[in-house]
Amino acid sequence: ADMGGPSWVFNLREGRALDHDSPRIAFAGPLLATHDPKALELEDDEPLWLLKEPTQARALAALIAARRPDFVKVWFVHRQGDDLEAQTALVRAAIDGIHAMKLRAAVHATTLETARRAVEAGADILVHGVADRDVDEAFVAAVVKRRVIYVPTLIVTKNYRDLRMRQMRIEPFE
Is 64 exposed, middle or buried (0-12, 13-18, 19+ CB in 10 A)? Predict the structure, then answer.
């Protein structure tokens, strides 16, 4: 499962679909993001599409849905100084748009507050887990009640750090 990135992975997935020696690739497509860091921008195939307003968020979900993703991922990154209420409205609109396309919404929300808001907004999948503090009983109850899939990615933080430090090493099998 590729939780999101450049659109060329759609072509890889489609090219391997009939190859029985290849694994099945589940792919989200470009991430609908509340933040678009320069370090992750590409010249011709953006892995992140910046959410700017609710109508645009729904339109971007429809644009990704046209490529037949297996799910769509929202990158809910809240930084100090960001308007959390406005970001939450964008995430809710994106999730509404994803659901309107009959797809699951995966959300990267790694703080308890953003994860809580993502679940309340209708997230179907939370990826990477909550990292800023222990989750509380109310959060666990909401995740269970809404049957949210919780994916506690174990190595993504190290990979992000290695990438930022320009120490990323791709193994031969990769």
Answer: buried
7 CB burial (10 A radius; 0-12, 13-18, 19+):
middle
pLDDT tens, per residue, the chain with 174 residues: 888 887 888 888 888 888 888 888 888 889 999 987 665 555 666 788 899 999 999 999 999 999 999 999 999 999 999 999 999 999 999 999 999 999 999 999 999 999 999 999 999 999 988 989 999 999 999 999 999 999 987 776 677 777 777 777 777 755
Indicate the SS3 state at residue 55: helix
DSSP, collapsed to helix, strand or coil, labels residue 107 as strand
Note the pTM of the prediction, 2 decimals: 0.83
- Which of the 8 DSSP states describes residue 38? G
d(CA 98, CA 111): 22
Tokens representing 153?
């990615």
Residue 48, strand partner residues? 31
